[in-house]
């Protein structure tokens, strides 16, 4: 898949219409393409708003009204040749009419369930977009803080890690470039080094090799940070040797 092809996948990515292989390829591309990343985020937010705009909840009494009328409203009987009509055709028509109405009701209920599902998906997407935007704003605030200080270190396999610390905000950002993906079922976990005691600072995205992460929690006097490989979901304390150790700038 060429770079030109990847540029055209922003809409499909926003609508979750890509295969796993295409999604991973696009996410790798978007990590280095700010234009595609921004366009995909904007399209995702737009899709969420459109999903909310077309949703309309039925009146609570609608189901009761329909159920009450099933037994009293007859559908117009199909036209038949009187010569071929049998004495039982009227009863059979009434049964078929009720079945048809019941089928329509079931279909309407199914569509209602689909609308609720779409509404829930739209709300989830909107909440995820809101959280992502909030986290991005916080990350940018740390990087732009007047007292922000940074330190860069070479990591394993030629990767580079940079930590940025703002004392006034009591927050830190870790920026990794060129890291190898963790083994299957594993994830990179960040840690604050509280003078020898490691405190969890969140997880990195296992599908990205380049990422900027706002570390979870306050710096609170930590002297540095580390990165370890942990089981998916993270660990309460490090279970492996660190793949990266970076001291905080003075």
From TrEMBL:
Gene Ontology terms: cellular component: plasma membrane
Domain (Anti-sigma K factor RskA C-terminal): residue spans on this chain: 101-243
Keyword terms of this UniProt record: Cell membrane, Membrane, Transcription, Transcription regulation, Transmembrane, Transmembrane helix
Stretches for region Disordered: 74-93
Main localization of the protein described in the UniProt heading: membrane
Transcription regulation among keywords: yes
Domain Putative zinc-finger, chain residue ranges per copy: 10-37
Localization terms from the record: Cell membrane; Membrane
Lipid bilayer topology: Single-pass membrane protein
Single GO MF descriptor: sigma factor antagonist activity
GO biological process, one term: regulation of translation
Domain of life: Bacteria
Entry keyword annotation includes Oxidoreductase: no
PANTHER family, per the entry: ANTI-SIGMA-K FACTOR RSKA (PTHR37461)
Protein name per the record: Regulator of SigK
Provenance organism: Streptomyces fructofermentans
